[in-house]
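Posting this for the archive.
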Amino acid sequence: MKDTTAVILGGGQGKRLFPLTLERAKPAVGFAGKYRLIDIPISNCINSGIKRIFVLTQFLSASLHRHIMQTYQFDTFTDGLIDIIAAEKSLVREGWFQGTADAVRATLRHTTYYAYKNMLILSGDHLYRMDYKKLIKFHQKSNADITISVSLASKSEASEFGLLKADEDGEIQEFVEKPTDEKIINKFKASHQFLNSLGLSFKSDKYMASMGIYVFKPKILFELLKDRSKTDFGKDVIPSAINNFKVMAYPFNGYWRDIGTIEAYFNENISLVDPEPEFKLYSPNWPIYTRTRSLPPSRIMNSEIQDSIIVEGSDIKGATVINSIVGTRSIINKNTKLEKVVMLGADFYEGETFLKPSEMKQKNGPPLGIGENCHICRAIIDKNARIGKSVTIRTDPSAADKDEQNCYVRNGITIVPRGAVIPDGTTIIN
C-alpha cells in the first residue's frame, strides 16, 4: 500500500450538520462521546496499511487541525505522514474549493509530491470499516481507470445517493447523482445477475449506491480534472468518465452509513447503545484511533444507567441516564434524567483555562454540564454547554425545524450548541 495516496475530503461547509458545524469543520464533529468523524477514514487508512494521507480542509478548520496534529504522529522510522491542506489563494485561483473535484484539483501539487500509483479519495462523514487493500487489489486486478466503491440501498434511500448501473462484470454503464424522478430511479435497480455473482440475494429490489469512495489511476485523474468547469465528482467527473474510461464498481458488503445529517448523526449515535449494535465501536485488530487523554475514570454515584455509553472523565451524581451517550468530562447532577441524549461533553473541567471568552462561566450563570432536577429527551448537547437547574428539554419526533436562542430544532431533535448557556428553570418543549 506504499504506492497509494489517500485524500480525505473535509472542506465542505457542513450545512446538513448545522448547528454542530456552527464553530467547527464537519469532520471535527464529535462521535460516540470521544471520537471525531475524521477518525473513521483515518483509522481505516492506517489499519489498511496506508500511511500517506492528506486531509483537505476549508471552513472553520482550526479544531480539526488541532485534533489531527495531537492525535496522529508517525515515528521517524516510517515514511508515513498525515498532512492537512487548507484552501489557499494563488496566482491561478482565488482560493475557495468549489466542490469535491475542485478541492482535489486545487491541491494536486501537494498530494502528488510523492510517487504513487493509486489515488484513493474518501469522504469525511461516513461510518464504516473497510479494508482498502481489498479495494485497491480489485482496482488493479480489473485494470480499471477508476473504481467506485458501492453499497446496496433500498428504494426509499436511493434518492440520497449517486446511483449506478453495472454489467455482470461490474463495469459501470451509467451514473446519476441523487435522482428524484422515480422513473429514473427505477432504471438503476441492481442487476440480480451481478448480485448473484457476489453471493448476494435480496427479496426486495436494491440499488447500487456510490459510497463517495474512489480510486483513480494518476494520469486519468489529471486528464479528468483538466476541465475546470467540472467541480464535483458525483455530478460532473464520474458521469463524463464512463463513456471514455473503464470505470468499475467495487461492491462493499459491510456496514456503511452516511452520517452527514443531524437525523442520521443522532440515530447512529443512539444505535450504539442497542444490545447488539450493527456497528460495533470495538473490532479486533481494527481499532478506531483518536486522541489519547490522561483522564480519570468516570465516577457514577447513586445513579441509574440503562443502555448507555459513559466516556472517561465524567461525573454523574444521583442521575438517571437511559439510551444515551455521555461524552468526555460530562457533569450530570442529582435528580436529572436523560433519555435519548447525545452529550458531547467538555474540552476542560470547571476552573481550568477556557478556550474562549464566550465559554467562560458567566456571573451567576450555571457551571459546566447539566444541573439538578433536569429532564432532557431527544437532544444533542454540544461541548462546553452549561445547563442550569430544573431545565426541561423535550422534543417530539415530528417537531418542525426552528432556530431559538441557545438552541435549534432539526428533524425532531433539539440541539444545544457548543458553549451555550441555558438558565435555571428554562423549559424548551417542541
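Residues 4-271 form a domain with the Spore Coat Polysaccharide Biosynthesis Protein SpsA; Chain A fold (CATH 3.90.550.10). Residues 199 and 418 are 46 Å apart (CA to CA).
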